[in-house]
Fold this protein.
Amino acid sequence: MINLRDKGAEIWERANRPQRVLMAISFIAMAAALPFLGGTFLNTPIADYQSVLVYPIAMFVLMAIGLNIVIGKSGLLDLGYVAFFAIGAYTMGLLGTRTSLNTWEILPIGIAMAMFSGIILGVPALKLRGDYLAIITLGFGEIIRIVALNLEVLGRSGGIIGIPTPPPIFGIEYAFDSHRIYYWTLLIIILFAIWMVRRLSVRRAGRAWESIRQDEDAAELMGVPTFKYKVWAFVLGASVGGAAGVFYASKTLFIAPDNFTLQISILILACVVFGGMGNIWGVIAGAVILGYLPDRIRFLSDARLLVFGLVLVIMMNLRPDGLLPRKKREKALPNKEKP
Amino acid sequence: MIGNFLDQFWSLTFGGLSLGFIYILIALGYTMVYGVLRMINFANSEVFMIATFATIIIVRDVYKFTQTSEYATGFRLWLILGTALLASMLVAGVLSVLIEIVAYRRLRRMNSGILAPLISAIGVSMVLAESVRIMSDSRPVASPRAMEKSFIGKFFDADIRLDNTIIIIAAIILLILLLAFVNKTRLGKAIRAVSMNGNAAKLMGINIDGVVSITFLVGGLMTGAAGFFYVLKYENTSFSIGFELGIAAFTAAILGGIGNIKGAFYGGLALGLLETYASFFLGTQWKAVTVFVVLVLILYTKPNGLFGEAMTQTRA
């Protein structure tokens, strides 16, 4: 099967520095120009195109990058990723409505809260392996939602309303309906996350995750402190989710437990696997497609999720490694017995 | 509070037991497939949901019961219950086999790890849940009541309800049949062989695809029975029911130790009772939290579940 990812990597590796800078800049410019393409075939028929770009698309991309650290890089199955998104959003909701802190000040607090809960959940859960980790994270996601649903201070099913928008920064106003501004801000956050993941992947942490994913026992025997790096992966993933949550709450002005269901966790997981686990470009492609598709095919109205499910089945059967799979040499051997 | 609890202890326990048996049967759909494939059968929850609809269709459209009909009695009652049970089991069994062919077979042959089949199974369950949602207009569907829910006796202070009794007895019979099938027949032996070591079983000439299909069929039959019992007990269903019960049953399977039948049995019972007691003390809204907290505590002390064999390393 054609491996677009390897093709892309080949072109990238053959290019010299100015060519690479040029490629990166044109790629970023293309992404930044997306809000102006509303009138073209890209347009979403019912939802406002520019707001679709912010949520779900850009938000999904950010979360998928975060989840990819956990699943794609270190091979830990996390089914409750929405919990960190919710923690970030509720931190913003609570502090934004009850204190005079603004979005930019709450952002680090929200990230810290998400990281902290990542440690609380990760330290016991990461001692377990595989499927048990899956169910515990899934349970954690549900617990956060149920707690939000039942605690008076979190607004119960009514959620929190009147969350302030971000204050102007460098003279740029964040009006609640100027979706473009939010999209560009998110783009910057996404670029920062990509940069972080790419730097980490080629350093000690990235190699440790890689070895854990391929064979945890072998890694442990070679002296990799596997537990420490697993918690690190988990906490870094959580921090990205938390950042997405803070920004989401500040954008939508209103959050309720219904925004943080298990379906979101599953959708983000689907983005990661659909696009190509472990490969950041694949994951981004997956998140863009899966975030965009349900709104693009809204003309199917009622049947759109049905079609979405069909697409998932067909795609996975045709390309089980995802749209843009990771490099061949990074693939784990499917079975221990095989050479 | 405690006094109230003691007063209601037995009626709570009976309710919890019958719920527990429903969980056991669904958990078997997860655990049997997991035992053979080491994969989470994500679509099993929707198999359960379809089975609840199959039951309602039999009672409502084949036997023409409405909300105002008189209750069936005697032989006719048992005939209705029997056909509804068999029909929902068959529908669920066949559906389960089809799901294996659509979502798993090709990926299994390509040896593509566990995440790709998980996503394709998620896709299948979305398709199933959404089709039913569209057909049922996103509304819950009530089942007409074919059977009078009479009290058939007393145990200490608690009234014993007929539907709970039927569920418990029928589920026990099904479990005995299942155990006999797995432990006494040639096919059952093949299933056990594949779950111990797939490659070795293949080398011994066992048809792996056949065994996997049979496993999905049996898991589906059990899940289908759970669908019937659920409608018998709660008399309604909706397109989203699979999701709610599916997670609980999956938790039950893990709680007991996924991959073995005994684990599903104790896990299901424990979860059914725990949920019922927890909703009594803390209110129904906190029951899911209690369940997950207990699950975390148990896995922390016994990482393979209560009755899990030491399955060496399951990988994500």
Observations:
- The domain at 6-301 of chain B is CATH 1.10.3470 (ABC transporter involved in vitamin B12 uptake, BtuC).
- Chain B touches chain A through 48 residues (CB under 8 Å).
